[in-house]
Each structure stands twice: as structure tokens, then as C-alpha cells.
Hints:
heterodimer; A: about 1100 residues; Immunoglobulin-like; B: about 450 residues; Serine Threonine Protein Phosphatase 5, Tetratricopeptide repeat; 18 helices; Beta-barrel_TonB (chain A)
Amino acid sequence: MEKRIKYAHYSKWIPGTILLCLQICISFSCFGQQKPSFILKGHIKLPDGLQLQVSVRSSKNGYTQSDSTGYFSMPLHAMPDTLKFSAVGLKTQYEVIKNPVSFLNINMEAATQMLNEVVINTGYQQVRANEINGSVSQISETMLNARPGTNILNRVLGQSTGLLLNIGKSNGNPQNTTNLSIRGLGTINGPLDPLIVLDGFIYEGDISNVNPLDVESVSLLKDAAAASIWGSRAGNGVIVIITKKGRYNQPIAIGFNANVIVQQLPNLMAHNQMSSTDYIAVERKMFDAGYFDDQISNSPYQALSPAVEIMLAQRSGKINSTVANAQLDALSKQDSRSAYLKEFYTHAITQQYGLNVRGGGSNYKFLLSGAYDKVLSETYQKNNKVNIGLTQEFRAGKNLTLSGRVYFTSLETASGRPAYNSLSVGGRILPYLSFRDAQGNALPLATAYRGAYTDTAGNGKLLDWKYYPADDYQHNTVNTSRWDIFASTGLKYKLTSFLDFDLSYQYQRQHDETVGLSDAQSYRARNLINTYTQLNRTTGILTYPIPLGGIQSLDLGNVSSSTARGQFNLNKTLGQHSLTAIAGAETRSANTDGKSAIWYGYNADPLTYSNVDLVNSYPEFLTGNYTQIGSGNNLTSTQYRFMSLYANAAYSFKKRYTLSGSARRDGSNIFGANTNDRWKPLWSTGLGWLLSDEPFYRLDWLPELRIKATYGTSGNVDLTRTALPVATYATNSVTGLPITRITSINNPDLKWEQLSQWNIGTDFTIKDRRLQGSVSYFVKHGTNLYGPALYDYTTWGGSKELVRNIAEMKGYGVETELHSLNLQRSSFRWQTDTYFNFNISKTVQYNNSYTTGLYNILASGSSITPLVGKPLYAIAVYKWAGLDAAGNPQGYLNGKPSINYTAMALEASSSGDNLVYIGSATPTYYGNLINSFFWKEFSLSFNMSYRLGYYTMKPTINYSRLIANGTGNSDYSLRWQKPGDEASTTVPAFVYPANQDRDYFYADSQPNVIKADNIRLDYINLGYRLDVSKMKLPFRSVDLYASMQNVGILWRANHLGLDPDYLNTLSPVRSLTFGLRSNF
Amino acid sequence: MKKYYVIQVWMVAILVLLNTSCKKYLDAKSDAKLVTPQTLQDLQGLLDDANLMNLKTTPGYNESSTDDYFWLPITFNSQPITTQNLYQWIPIDIRYGNDWNQGYLPVYNANLSLELLDKIPQTAANKQQWDNIKGSALFFRAYYFLLLAMQYAKAYDGNTADTDLGIVLRLKSDFNIPSTRASVRGSYQQVITDLTASLDYLPDYPLNLLRPSKGAAYALLARTYLYMHQYDVALTYANKALVLNSYLMNYNSDPFIISLTTAVPFKKFNGETIFYTEMASTLNLNSTTRARIDTVLYGKYNTNDLRKTAFFKANAGYQQYKGSYAANASTFFSGIATDELYLNRAECYAYLNNVNSAMDDLNYLLKKRWKSTVAYTPISATDRTDALTKVRLERRKELLMRGLRWMDIKRLNKEGENIVLTRNINGKIVTLQPNASYYALPIPVDIIEQSGIQQN
Lengths: 1080, 456
């Protein structure tokens, strides 16, 4: 009773709305008081080293808490009664009291493998999941293992809420390499990548260096309160990767994994390639209309397609029409797709092996790991990766802990064969290529020049000037070797019982060496040598400005970073109050440097090369134009520096109410900025309430309920945006003089982007842990966002746009995560994990007169295009009025059907009345549904992913592009051909010469936008755990697993059978994995 | 207590370290190649950036609109509609990536250099470099202002020059200053002011031909005054320029000639070149592969005129141009060369009724182009009008595809030459009448939208 009053008293300190709720609730619970008949006393024994208050809840007699030494007492009025002892991090225990007992001894054990008691590592500190107010998703090792593969980021997908892979988006931003976004977007033109943190330090290298087998868990820090501790680069969320470590007092254990992944051949035949017959018919039409005549007479050396060569030979009388038609007929039976598949594609195979040894004594723990990956890609690229890691920790005395970690990666990559559509003839992509003749000899491909011309150009004195794709890849190789070291060392000193000091230092260096070798037989070398060969036609003497032999290029690149950090950790519990806090300072530097060079006349054996004249110009053999020999020399060096002060504190009262806050100040050496603008303060605050811990809480079916709310700010700074004009130095190749070029003009009004985020959420557990889950609602608000504003480029013609703080965006969304145990029998279990996301990011303001109309998002969707009131990725199209009787596509002009494309484009850009808004181009609803079944030693799980509520533009035939650069599309076969066709097709008639405006109108109109919604079956995993107990084997466990990835699309909204996420590229193919995991 | 003391020492040490080293630490340059331009070397570098200042930068819309070339029907018919419209002098929707932005970019570099140069005191030690930057910046600004005026403004007419719309004269690097169009007189006056000022700073000869020099400034002044119909002043400057360089290639044999019959007959940076620039190829209707030389014009070259071999290449009965001084078959030289100076001077002499001197200059030039094995018969003129006609014809023959013809047509029409341009579009004749408003070519649409300046 006394305690109750005390609570009420304390509650005054708890702010606002919670206070009100609390008081109402407390007053309700007070009505239930009865006179005690018996006072139960007892002691709760906690696991070693733990000091916490345990809640004791009776089903009939109310509630109490143990004191910090473990003693408790509770008045009981009714019996029998069941007491429930629970505390965070401990296994809940029940005790039935039938008769009065004098003293009750309870032993509580630490909880293991309970979802909400996972420890979350934010990189700066470890927090229990239910003590953190911020929004964090934790992905465990088991979940990471669900997807095989060599890249850790791919394994994170589909195992949490908040993370979305943006497929097929391209934004001109260098900090957009992962295409991942956490909780939608927070910027329009700023960096888009989430920050990646490995074992507490920002990871600057290539994340594919990290072997997924070495990863223990991945946390996504999603809201501002969780991410703000990472400061100005955390605006897009943070991905924290934690690697495996040893444990104290653990006998030596060995873990082993081996698996192989075999991929299907890519489905090239499904690509929308135009048929060879159609293509040749178009070439015939162009040839007859004289399209190629200019080229043939002006630059007779320039490549012509095989079909045009035949037509030309026929026209000049070299072959008769029968022969010509037969040859064309033969061509029309060829298909580039099958030629590519046969010559350049294979089943990709990945082999992965991993071994780790871990263990620990009372003062020392370690983990030693080694892994080997061998990858053969679908185009025969080879990739060998070795990882070696050692993590150790050593307790040097009572107060001092030392730790160290070294992670080494070596990666060797060798280039493979040409990819589909990478080969062109005179710049044109052809559907009827063949790479070998019937006898299996490599055929030449006229990639730049006509064989007929180059054969005779030098009177036989030049090198063979033909390109043989089927062989050339052997002579033209790129090999990359990389090593990467990521090392860190730490010192932890316990200053007092509640205060630690951490000092840590991390160093990373990634070194890449790329050697490009075009040997003497390669087309590249022969072509360059021939191009510059000087033939004296009278004497017949040849001189070679580019010496005979091969060409070797070398690129060296280094990325290095170092971080030094000093941090105080405070962890103090005083009665019912507990405070955890960290405060620290950090400096970071990230440097890159690069060097490249080129050697001509290279010979591996004997190792020789020759110097070339890079200064003077030489006439090119075919054109006579004077050009310089390209120098491959280059030097680069960048150096970014950051300095931060940060603090984070969480105060919790009775473990029930948690108030948290963080503040951080970041500085960086932004170029061209005034020192004052280099510092940016950021902060966040949060409030958490473990409602189910309240004495009045009576919902037995919902034993755990926690409510939390956070607010915080983060920033974005793009290091390329500056207040002073910034120029870069280079050397002019003609004069050899240094030049300075302005890359961004003086823009003194620029400010940092600001992003704030609200998050309100709840975590809950239903009785018996049958259902656990969380729901959060968040609002993101970005202000002062950078945006390209059209400006009067009379001032500086270097760009039509100027970056200004012109935009404001708002995003909001809901995330729901449910884990249910649907069925549990003695040997059978079925559980379901459901992830649901709803997310919209809209432009609220964009101070740019240009972006007022739908015209800006006309057929857009692949890049962020801000338009007020619309999602950041959005699509509008021309209203469609069908094909007219002549097969011309019709839109609307002043509300009436029209084929005046120029005028319609004008109306679209002015009033926009003839456009229609379609919707978002990124999924509005997305998530996963994972069902897992366990039966005896078997397990089976499958993951379905859904992406809903978005649209995409489907590529179609563009006749101007077909004519200008040969880009075809299978829609050609659906085109209007005769009156009446307009009833059954939307594809316009082919006209020559093409009308570019007509083509773009059609491509950007309604028939070509499709609803992209789809549901996929991502994977099916099958596992079998060998029952080793019955066998005399040295293993503690053996797991066999098989998996099928990218199983297929289960449902799609479009009726064309298209994969809406991969319309411009090849869909990911199915793969099979077989593996073994074992511990001994 | 001792422990707390330790903590305090730690904290104080960290704070002190941070405060003292912060500023220095963050002052490091983020990219070794980056600068915020402030030194003389930085400024000279801005002006030496030939890819923005000289190469493929000068306006080409004008040459695309001239009568020196035509398209065969087959070429016309295979072009997209917009290009077909351009060919018929119909304005199209031109946006960024055009002559305007390429022409004003050097102006920005010049303005920025001039502004930053003001902050660097001129000393005895840096005088040479300082002067070169000052003179070069002024020259570049004038050079591009004149080229832009040749394209986007009407021809200079003393009677209407105050009201005719000229170009935007940007004299500061600050983009917040709104653009306004000066008058034609104001535009030409600015060119003259800048050029005259540059004479005090420029060296007689440049380090390389991509850099301005006093010779180039004199020659450009001569060109400017010629366009303003002030022939006497133009003559003075042409003379001054020719004092510095009067070299003409002898087409029979010359170290700067590779071979008259090859695809590229002249070497780059040949002896005639005073200042080197190339024409932008954004529109490029007159590209050597598409364009055929006007047959009447071609017919005017004498068989023994070596230019007939050097400048042209036969293709299926028509002629294609190959006479560029850029040593590249597809790049047009658009800079300043001595041949233009001789023709400027000859025109001045003729206009000022000094017929003999005019013919002397003309014959001196033509003899260098004449086959040495055949006797050269000097041209003579009966009177001032005849002399002017002959000089102007030779001007057209010598300077074709150099970015000068469009301005010549409009300035000569101002003097009453009544040149009507015609295009044969599949049998239909399209004409452009003298002094048509289209002679001030349309300004890019987005510039009109953003700045609100008046369209031509």
C-alpha cells in the first residue's frame, strides 16, 4: 500500500499524456483491494552478476516487486494462486501456491533465444531490445542463413521491416551504390545509401568483402532516435553488422559450412528482342530509302550490318538477287540470343566454404575464422575470395579488458565473356548475330569498321583489323586483385563500478589492383596499332607510333579509413532509477587515392614495353584526323575528415518508463565551406513505457506490451555542395598546361539538409508467446533539401541547374511485424513471420517554377523527380485516344484527339491537361511472409515477398531509335499494319523517316504504363538435422540444407507476362543450393 | 575519490585536444585536385581550359543556317522533323546544351578571373602573369560577346543600333544578377571596350594559339569595326594585326600543309592561325558528311585555284568541305587567321575607295592559293563597287565554314546587297528574305522562360 502511494507520487514526474493515463489506470486498480490474510515472503536467486528487480504478479492477489537483493513479500488473500515471476532478460517462472508457505525460494534463469530479449548493438553500445526506444530490426544468423550467397546485404533482404531494395532506379548520385533504402526516402538529391557499420565502425570498403558466414547478426537502425547516434551520415538509416565472436568459458568449438549454388541459365529468350526477319525488313526499307548512302560514300570504312552488306553487294552487282535473298534468309534464321547463350553464357556456380574455431577461458576468448568463396558467373567471370579473421579479447586484471580484431580479405577477379547486347555493329545492336560458322571457326564482327574495307586499306601491310568475339575475350582480359584489412583494437577500463572508459581505434585499408591486358592478338591492340600506323605509300615503309605488341593498363586504388574513439559508459542503478549513458568523441578520416598508367608494346615474355609519343598528334589511318595517343596516366587523391562529439543517455524508472535522448555534433572538412558551416548539431529524444509492467495491468492474454515514441533530427551533407566556387585541376592534353575547371559555382546560400523523424510504436507478446509482434508508425520530414533548380544559365553555362535548398518532403509509413507459432505438437511445429510495410514519400514543396506540372514526371519513375504532392518516384503519362485509321498514335490537344505531337508536347508542358497521373513508381505496400515447418529433424520454410501499389513504364518500340541506333523491341511485330488493326493493337505503324515526337509520345502514353504489383516466391529452404546423438561421430551437430532461390513470380498484376521489376534488364534466375553446416 | 580525479583529467585532456586540433584537422583539403580559385595560377588555369574556352565552343547555329551548303533530298528526308525545321529556318524548341550555354561559359570564366584578379595586387614579380590573365579574360569575354551578337542580335545598323536588341552582357559571376538584353550598340561597345582595355595587358604573341594575344585583339577589333561599317577604324586595326603576323600559306608548298589531296590538308596551329577556336557541333546541320557545297559557289573557284583541291572532296557529283584548319575532317575551325585579316583589309580599302590597295591585298592572297605551274593573272577592279564585289566574293570563297558567313549575309544586306537565301525542299522552294527577323537567331526557350528576356 505504501509503495502504491509512492508510485502515484512519482508519477507526477512523468510528463504529459502518460501521466493522465497512468493515474486513471492506477485508480482503477485500487478498487480491487482486499484485506490480506497471509503475507508471503521469499527470495529470488538471479543468475550470476545480475542485479535487477523482478516483478511478482499474482493472478488473484495483485502485484509486487523484489528489491535489489532479491527479497520480496506479498500479501495473499485468496488461494490457490499462481505467481508469475518475470523480469527482462530472465525466463519467466510460475509458482503455484496452494497453502500458506513461510518462505519461498525461487531460482531464475537467464532467458535464451527469446526474440524481444535480443541484445542490440548500435555500434556504440549494446542495449537490450526492450530497453531501446528507437526503432530497430535485428536479423539473426539463422535468418541471414535463409539466403545463400556471398554478399551480406543480399541476405538481409526480406527478413525484417523497413528495408526495400529499389530495383531499376538510377539517380545521379555517387552515394547511391546499394540501392537499398530504409523506411523510404529522406532526401531528394542528397545521398541515398544507408550507412554501413561493421563491428562498431563505419565501413568504407566494398561490403562484399565481408563474408556472410562470419556475420552473427545485422541490425537496422531505422528511426532518428536509433540512428542519430551515427550523426550526419545516418539520415538514411544505419545497417550495423556484427561479426561472430568467442565467449568466455567456452570449450573450443569448430564450426564448418560448405555449400554450392548452381544457377539456371539466364532467360535471354524472354528478352523483348525484335525478330530477325522484322529487323532485316526494316534495314531493307532504310537501305532502299538511301539511309546508309551518306555513310557508305563519306566513310566507306565505317561498319555496316551483315544484312546491309548483302544489300549493298546486290546493288553494286557483286551478287545477284537470288544469292542475296538466300543470304538474307539465312541471316533471318539466326538469333543473337541463342548465339550469346551458346558462346558466352554458362550455369553460374558459387562454392562457399567456411570454418571457424572459437573458445575462451576465464580471461581470454577468441574466434578464428577462415572462408573461401569461388564464383563462376554466368558470363564466365571468375571470382575467388579468401577471408581470414581473428577476434580476441583479454581480461588483463580486474578492471582492464583489451580486445583486438583483424579481418583480412583477398579477392581475385578475372573478366569473362561479353554479356548479352554488349556487342554492336557500327553502334547498332543486331538481333541476328552469330559468332561461329558451321565449322566452328570464330566469325568476325564488324564492330567499328567494314571488313571489306580494312582488308585492302593498307595493301596488306596492316595487321588483321577484324574483331572475333568468340576468341577475343581470351586476349582481352581484366584481372583485379584486392586485399583488404579491417583491424581494430580496443581498451576498456573500469573506472568505478558504474563507469567504464573505452578507447578504440580502427583502421581499414582496401587496395585494388586492376590489370587490363589486351595482348598482341587482341582486337583492341590491333585496332589501336592500325589506327596510328603511318604508311608511306611511295616507299611502303611503315612506322608505328603505337608499337607492335599488347597494351597493358594498370589501375591502383586505395581506400583507407581510420577512426579513433574515446567513450565513457555509465551504467548506474539506484533503487528504482537506472541510468545508462555514453559520451564520447571521435575523429575519422577516409582517404582514397588512385593511380593509373598504361604501357604500349607490352610483351609478357620476354617482358618488354615501348615508350610512345603522347604529346604530338598523328593522323589516323582511316580518317586522316590528327589525334593524340591516349595517355592512361592519372592520379587522384581525396581525403575526408570528420570529427564528432556525442552523448546518449537513457533514464529508466522501475524499468517501466524509459526516457532517452542523444545529441551529436559533427564536423567535416567540406570543401569550400566556411568553418562555421562545418559543424552540425543533431539530437533525438524518446520515451518508452512498459505498460504490461504496471500493477493495474491485467490483460493476461497480452503479457507484454510496450509503447514507445521518439523524435529526432538527422542531417545530410553532400560533400560536393559548396559555398565558394570550387574548381578541379587537370592538365590540358593539347597544351600540356595545368587547367582549372569550375565544377560548382559559388552558392553561398546553401545549408545542410535537415531530416526529422517521429516514430510511435508498440511491441507486444501474446500469452505463451504464440504471437509476438510490433507495430510502428513513422513520419519523416525533410526540409532544406537540395534540389536542382533551373536557372538562367547565362551566368555560367556549365549546368542548366543550380543546387539550392528548395525542397521539402514528407514521408510516412506503417511497419508491422508478427511472429506467430501457429501449431505446436510434440514433433511438429509451424510458425509464420509476417512483415508488412506501408510507405509513401511525397514532395511537399519544391520551389522551382519548372516543376509544377505533371510533365515533369512524364513516363518517369526510374529516378527521383520531385513534384509537389506526388511521390518522389512517380509516373504520369499522356492520355491515350487510340490509333487513328492510319496507325498514328493519338493523344489529346485541347480535349480533342490529335496527332499533332509537337503541340501536344507543348500542352503537356504548359497546362498538362492531356496528361494523366498514374501513381507511385516504388512499392507503397511491401513485405514478406515466411512460413516455416519443423517436423522431427526436418525443416521447411518458404518466403513470399510482395510489392504492391506501384507502376512502371514498359519499354516499347521507338522507331527513331530503331533507325538511328538499331535499338529494336518485339512490340514491332504487334504494330499497326493495315486499316482495322487499330482495333486490336496500340503499337503505331512504322513510318520512315521516323518522327521522334511521335515515338516519344507513344512511349510516354497510357498503353505503356503497367501496374507493377507482384508476389514472388523468393525461396524454398529445406533442412535436415542429422541425429548425431545416436551415431559415433565427432560432430555435435550436422545440418544438411537445400534451397531454391528466386523461385518465381506467383502473381503479377500485368497480363503481359512481364516481370515488372526487371523490364529493362534480365530477371534474376532460379538457383539451387546444397550445403552442409556442422559443429564439432 | 581518486577515480573521479582520473576521469576529470581524462575529460579535460580530451576537450583540450579537441579544441586545439579541431580546426586544423578539418582544414585539410578533401580532394587534392580541388581548389577555390584564388591564385594567379588558378586563374590562368581557368583561361587555359581549352575544352571550355576554345575547342568546339563557338556558336554553330549561324553556320547551320547559311547558304554555303545544301542537303541532298535523301539527307533531308532521313532527318528528324526538328532538324528538317531548322534547315528551313523554322524556330524549334532549343533547350540546354546549346550555343548559348557554351558561349556564356567562357564569359563566366573571364568574369570570375577578373573579379578574383582584383583581389591580387599586381607586383613587379607577378606582372607578366597578372597582365596576361587580365588581358586574356577581357579578350575572351569580348570574343564570345561578339560571337553571340553575330548569332543572336541583328546586324549592326547605326540608325537603329540603340533600339535593336543585342545580347545579355554579363559582367559579373554572380548568378543573382538578372539577365537583361543590351542594345546592339551597347553590345558592340562592350566588345570594343574590353578589347581596347585588353591591349594594355596582352603580349604581342601568345605562348600557344589557344591563348589570346595582342595580335588577336587587333584582329578582333578589325572584325568588330568591319561589322559596324566603320571601315577606316577597321583598317587601322587590320594593319596593326598584320604587322604582328602576315604569314600566308603557299598552297603549292608549305610546311603547314600535309597534302592538298588528303582528307585533312592543313596542320593544326598553322602559320596563318592567330587565335584558335573550333565551332560547336550541337546542331551541326553543316557537318561535312551531311552538307554539300553550294554548286554555284563551287563553280566560282578557278580550276587552277588550289583551294578547289584543298577545300573540297567530290562525292557522287557534289562537293564536301574538308578545308578546316582544325586538322580534323569533322571539326570546323572558327578562330582568327591572317587570311581573314587580308580580306578585312581589302574590304576596308575597297570601301574607302582605295581600289588598288584592295586589289593588291586580294592578289597577294590569291597568288598564294594559285597553282605555281600556271601563270597567275591578277584580278583588277574597275571601280569601288566592282572592287567591293570582288573582295566580298573572295571573302566568301576563302572563309567558308568558318562561322563568318551568316554575319556577312546580314551585314551586307544592311548595305543593300539583297542576298536571298533559298532551300529546295523536295521541289518546294523555301526562302529567307534579307533583314528577316530570323537573322537574329532564336534564343533558347529555357533561357526565355528563366530570365524573362525578350525572344528574337
